């Protein structure tokens, strides 16, 4: 999966990205500090199953801290969006093209109100972050509508001559570059109940509604209310959640998360990403202690999900995209051929079957599937068994 970080310029997108990945990138307080998209690996948290088996896992990818497994996901930070991006203003065309393969969006908003709509620094509290969400929704809707409108007149007349069952298939083809399939189009049509027999009679408002619903379903979004610890940030988080009930709004402080992760990497503190506290590991200078204690007091003790960065990633993967974590594990052997204990953890869409899991391991394993074996109970599972989060399964093949 690919998660896209979006938002206007200078709201902390690159800081959020660096905090999540510890990648070395440019962070600057001016518009378009990011020009080409940054790609990196972030991690979602899953309670590891190793403690249930009284072992310590040895991850091949990701890592494990205190029996909390961190599973890798792809993260992308793109250029900031400005009003008119759908018409090519700013870096709009590049921005939208970069986003086409994302499975969901994290919109980073300056909750402190310290960034103008054009992405320029301003006095905290001088701008309403609600406007940022509205304008970004508008630009994304215009992006999708523009794709439809380019071909709609001829396209709609053609669709009027096909059977109903083909309508969703043909529309999906038109949006194939945005990872939209036939099933999603059918769900959109079921929700908004437009007349598919005569699409050439749809009004502009109906076409706009159709494009908007495709966008909402194909690119679900969560709001990272960054800088929530500054000025009116906490109050604006409440306002954002009230104004946009369809979105999860998570208070964040990307600066604080970056500082904590860098301090942990340097061996100064013990810190598990997403937790609401840390422990000093060695003697530090007065200024270092003061800075860390400020984060503890003003961020970690103020928000239920700590700095919010890890919470946003987890919400995006497990709530928006509805993925589950599956561990390959033998009923009698937890290690791989090299002796690594529980080296892997896979993320699969909810509703996946044991056979889907087998194919995710390797195509040959899927083709030669005989049964799955529950590592906890030793019970056999058929290929149609629907996976549950944190299942531990061994795949038997012929």
In short, what is this structure?
This protein has 398 residues and is an alpha/beta fold.
Give the tags:
398 residues; alpha/beta; Rossmann fold; Helicase, Ruva Protein, domain 3; Ubiquitin-like (UB roll); seven-stranded mixed beta sheet; five-stranded mixed beta sheet; 13 helices
Plain-language structure description:
- The protein has 3 domains: 223 residues, P-loop containing nucleotide triphosphate hydrolases (Rossmann fold); 76 residues, Orthogonal Bundle (Helicase, Ruva Protein, domain 3), CATH 1.10.8; 73 residues, Ubiquitin-like (UB roll).
- It is built from 13 helices and 14 strands.
- Helix 6 packs across helix 7.
- A hairpin with a 5-residue loop joins strand 12 and strand 13.
- About 1% of the residues have low confidence.
- Strands 1, 2, 3, 4, 5, 6 and 7 form a 7-stranded mixed sheet that branches.
CATH 2nd-level architecture of the largest domain: 3-Layer(aba) Sandwich
Principal-axes geometry comes out as flat
Q: What is the helical fraction, as a range of percent?
A: 25-40%
Q: Looking at this structure, what is the CATH superfamily of the largest domain?
A: P-loop containing nucleotide triphosphate hydrolases
Distance between the termini: 30 Å
Total beta strand runs: 14
Question: Rg, please?
Answer: 23 Å
Number of helices: 13
String of helices and strands: EHEEEHEHHHHHEHEHEEHHEEHHEEE
Low-pLDDT segments, ≥5 res? 30-34
Q: How is the main sheet built?
A: 7 strands, mixed
Question: Regarding CATH, which class of the largest domain?
Answer: Alpha Beta
CATH fold field value of the largest domain: Rossmann fold
Structural class: alpha/beta
Mean pLDDT: 89
Number of domains as seen in the coordinates: 3
Q: Could you tell me the strand content as a percent range? A: 15-25%
